[in-house]
TrEMBL record, chain B:
Protein name: Fe-S cluster assembly protein SufD
Species of provenance: Metalysinibacillus jejuensis
Signal sequence interval, chain numbering: none
Segments crossing the lipid bilayer: none
InterPro entries: Fe-S_cluster_assembly_SufBD, SUF_FeS_clus_asmbl_SufBD_core, SUF_FeS_clus_asmbl_SufBD_sf, SUF_FeS_clus_asmbl_SufD, SufBD_N
Pfam families linked: SUFBD_core, SufBD_N
The encoding gene: sufD
SUPFAM superfamilies: Stabilizer of iron transporter SufD
Length: 258, 435
């Protein structure tokens, strides 16, 4: 079992504090969902976990199985078992999807123990078929000219090929039509199990109709303000966030996109 | 003002070389006249690079003798691996100034295709070579370096594809430079007559560390009406050369010209790649990738000039600069009066890998007609941080991520080259140069 422990995490961008003390523990074999209005720091949390250079952790800690994640470079975090499905995946011209994936898989292996080309292709073909992706996506340049839905599917393809211990999915559902959402959810559900934990960040309860979370957290003003089970998401869907604000005495503040 | 040239050869040397080489009289005369003009003409003035202190004229010897071979595997491995073995039926290898290996399929010969070294072509097809030698694309008297080139031609290739002949398999030329004393005054002519099609790929490869001679190279491509030519080149010349390389095409009506140039030389270089779209509805696509390193200074001009109506010209240039390398990328789209509905597009991007490297993308659109479309994009910068972050978030090290991004950045030309061996070599050269 692996565990990601986030303690009292404070994160700033350009000197402005966005996360103001986040506490969260995610184990493998668990799916967590973080919900909350726009601009409350959900994506900042995702970026801070992965180590985006723009996000400065001012205090607090992130540990994966007792190892200090904040000490690690971005690639070391990935190799330790973390994965972030990005909200806006980069497009990289001239690098094929397949070459990129093989580099990512081989980065986790010792020199001389690289995945064989045949085995890689077999696995790639199988996974792409599972995600109902066109075969030519393997030879297309990484995310270049991909539609929004194709990019999200491609993030899940990477997730399934790389098989991390703990994945953070940053708005994997945004901009997806219902068919694509079903496919993406199918991929995530396929990953569920002993060796895999997941933190899904979303605006919408709809995603949770396809992936039933074990735990739901609500984030506001840079903190997790409420946690519960799947029923919490349903109540949010039905009633919105106002009742939480009232319950906790949170003042409205201007929305900002972070 | 005439700059005095200190040349290792005299007018007499030029004449006697030409005679010994059994060249046709017209060419001896052309050489002599060019030699006289070279002394008088001014140097070219590549935009934004001052080359007045560059030495284009001194060299230890005009020609050197090298061994011929009977089989490709007798050549250095650097050459042998460029050729896709037996499946490559049409190959010319020139070793320094000596035609060292040549094979051409019976099928092409039967169709009337000529693919041979420039001097054999002059002897056997004198009229044909005379018709195209520096008459339509590049002129002898453009400047000192073209004249010097014409006077001192010491190698090259002649390709002639008759009307309606379509050659599927690429023709391959390899110019091996394995003698530090050698100078390369190579002249290449590719002629595709009406509705003909050909792909020609040349590679320059130095196996010596440092050159002492000159590389003054001219390639002329004549694309007939409705003809198609793809010209691929990978230049990997050693430092020490002062390289002047001029690759130019003239495209007829409905003709199509594609360039894929991987300019990887370690020498100081002036490279000129100009395509004249003379006939209506012609098109040109010019892709260039460059890696500069060390202290080298380079100037790359790519120009597509629209004369005919409905012509389309696309320029793509991607350069990577490291160490203290300096490069200028001039991209010129020029639409002449009367070339209505023409389209001139260009993209120049320079990636800087070190603080001291300098790269300058200089896009120019010169338009003398109203009803046209044109556009350009230019950027100079470092490796994109968000791309690095994305790749690293999958476990790829920073170094490997940069490598992938750079290879991707230079891929447009690599993917365009039709010969596996050349493709692989270019990839390896890029690997070696950016490391």
């Amino acid at each position: 079992m692996s565990t990601l422990v986030i303690k009292d995490l404070h994160v700033a961008i350009d000197g402005k504090e966005i996360l103001k003390g986040v506490n969260l523990t995610i184990n493998t074999n668990e799916v967590h969902a973080i919900m909350g209005p726009n601009g409350t720091g959900k994506s900042t949390l995702a970026s801070a976990i992965m180590g985006h250079p723009k996000y400065e952790v001012t205090s607090g800690s992130i540990e994966l199985d007792g190892e200090d994640v904040l000490e690690m470079e971005v690639d070391e975090r990935a190799k330790a078992g973390l994965f972030l499905a990005m909200q806006y995946p980069s497009e990289i011209n001239g690098v094929t999807n397949a070459d990129f994936l093989r580099s990512a898989i081989n980065a986790r292996r010792e020199e001389g123990d690289e995945i064989s080309l045949m085995k890689f292709i077999r696995e790639l073909d199988k996974t792409m078929a599972f995600l109902e992706m066109d075969e030519d996506m393997a030879q297309r340049y990484l995310n270049e000219g991909f539609s929004g839905g194709e990019k999200k599917r491609n993030e899940i393809l990477q997730l399934m090929m790389i098989k991390p211990k703990i994945a953070v999915l940053d708005e994997i559902d945004s901009g997806l039509d219902i068919d694509a959402l079903k496919v993406v959810s199918k991929g995530i559900n396929e990953m569920r199990g002993e060796g895999f934990g997941c933190l899904m960040i979303t605006h919408y309860q709809r995603l949770l109709n396809y992936i039933t979370p074990d735990k739901v957290h609500v984030m506001m003003q840079g903190k997790v303000v409420k946690s519960g089970g799947a029923e919490l998401a349903q109540r949010l869907e039905a009633e919105g966030y106002d009742w939480i604000k009232q319950e906790l005495g949170i003042e409205e503040e201007a929305e900002q996109d972070v | 003002m005439t700059v005095e040239m200190k040349l290792a050869v005299t007018a007499n040397d030029v004449r006697s070389f030409s005679e010994t080489n059994s060249e046709p009289a017209w060419f001896t005369t052309l050489r002599e006249s060019a030699f006289a003009q070279a002394a008088e003409l001014a140097m070219p003035k590549p935009d934004k690079t001052n080359i007045t202190k560059w030495d284009f004229t001194t060299f230890p010897s005009w020609t050197v003798e090298s061994d011929q071979v009977n089989a490709l595997n007798e050549l250095p491995a650097e050459v042998a691996t460029l050729v896709d073995g037996e499946s490559q039926h049409n190959v010319y290898v020139q070793r320094n100034n000596t035609p060292a290996f040549h094979k051409v399929s019976q099928e092409l010969t039967d169709k009337g295709v000529i693919f041979t070294d420039i001097f054999t072509a002059m002897r056997e097809h004198s009229d044909l070579v005379q018709k195209y030698f520096m008459t339509e694309a590049v002129k002898v008297d453009e400047h000192k370096l073209t004249a010097l080139h014409a006077a001192l031609v010491n190698g090259g290739v002649f390709v002639y594809v008759p009307r309606n002949v379509v050659i599927e398999e690429p023709l391959q030329a390899v110019f091996l430079h394995d003698n530090a004393e050698a100078s390369l005054f190579n002249h290449v002519i590719v002629v595709a007559e009406e509705s003909a099609a050909v792909t020609y790929v040349e590679t320059y490869v130095s196996t010596v560390e440092e050159a002492k001679g000159q590389a003054n190279i001219v390639a002329e491509v004549l694309v007939g009406d409705n003809a198609q030519v793809t010209f691929g080149a990978v230049d990997v010349l050693a430092k020490g050369f002062t390289t002047y390389v001029n690759r130019r095409a003239r495209v007829g009506r409905d003709g199509k010209m594609d360039w894929a140039l991987g300019l990887m030389s370690d020498s100081n270089t002036v490279s000129e790649n100009i395509t004249h779209l003379v006939g209506d509805n012609g098109s040109a696509d010019s892709k260039t990738v460059v890696v500069g390193r060390g202290e080298q200074k380079q100037n790359f001009t790519t120009e597509i000039r629209h004369w005919g109506k409905d012509t389309a010209g696309h320029i793509l240039k991607h350069g990577v600069m490291k160490d203290a390398a300096q490069s200028i990328f001039n991209g010129i789209g020029m639409i002449e009066k009367g070339a209505t509905r023409s389209d001139a597009q260009q993209e120049s991007r320079v990636l800087m890998l070190s603080e001291k490297a300098r790269g300058d993308a200089n896009p120019i659109l010169l338009i003398d007609e109203d009803d046209v479309t044109a556009g350009h994009a230019a950027s100079v910068g470092r490796v994109d941080e968000s791309q690095l972050y994305y790749l690293m978030s999958r476990g790829i090290s920073k170094q490997e991520a940069e490598r992938l991004i750079i290879h991707g950045f230079l891929a447009p030309v690599v993917t365009q080259l039709p010969i596996e061996g050349v493709k692989k070599q270019l990839t390896e050269v890029i690997e070696r140069k950016v490391r």
